[in-house]
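Why does this matter for the project? Reviewers at the last site visit asked to see concrete outputs rather than summary tables. In response, this paragraph embeds two records directly. Each consists of the residue sequence and, immediately after it, the corresponding structure tokens. Nothing has been edited or filtered.
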Amino acid sequence: MHTDSFLPSYDDMYLPFDEAHLEGRTDTMIRYRRPTEDDASIIRLIDSQLVPLSHLTPAQLEAVRRDIPKRLSHGVTLIACQRYEDNPLGFVHFFLHGELLYIDMLAVAPESQRKRWGNMLMAHAEKFAASRGCKRSKVMVDVGNANGLSFYQKLGYAMVQYYTQSQCHELDKTL
């Protein structure tokens, strides 16, 4: 069990999303990660959606893969699904550092992309962070991830700088 004060209580498990642009859909849910049930799906999403965009060496990628369970055990992971018991269609993993929301990973299954799941996940992460005093959000996007870059820019993120060594763009947004 986490001891960080910003983590949700059991009573906060369900996060219905009620934006008008979803046209009355009731089959949308953002919920907190259930490690035993969700982690295999999260790892598949990482392998299929994030790893191919990375510029890390095979050895570095293997080290990152081994670190995923530990990484997920810190911070917050929100899951997009149609019903509570369903497997994840996507997820966002993030950390809160003082007044900064750091988006660590966001991935949505190919068949669920362009259906606003990514927008919902980001909206919930940003709302969660703002309610806990965060004023800014930051994300790193791999140089080859043009779709990710466009996605974050449409959400109001602006490029701050480019890191040559990691081949990533840093984007920032005021919450």
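We now turn to the second protein, recorded in exactly the same manner.
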Amino acid sequence: MSIYNDHKDLDREFAKLIGYMSLTNQLNPDGSYGTIPTYSTTWDGMRQVIEAMQRRGYRPRFADQISHWKARFYNESNGQPTSWVCGESAPYAVCLAAIRALQGEAKS
């Protein structure tokens, strides 16, 4: 079970963890910057998550489990895999696994 209420919450959390808002200069009507990509709902968003994680030294692992997808990341610098997480789609599971990996890194 995820602590995120919807996909937009998940997308915002990943964007925050990778510093996405500092990478854009698009001003929104509400005064915020940037349009957060749909990391957790599209295959292109999943590709962006994987590329961002690879730049940080992580390799993805994910698998179709018939009724759900599972994903985790393997940290190449310390040799440690993250825990498997499950989601209803591959993009969702990969995005959630990336967030867990980055949150674990922040706690270290």
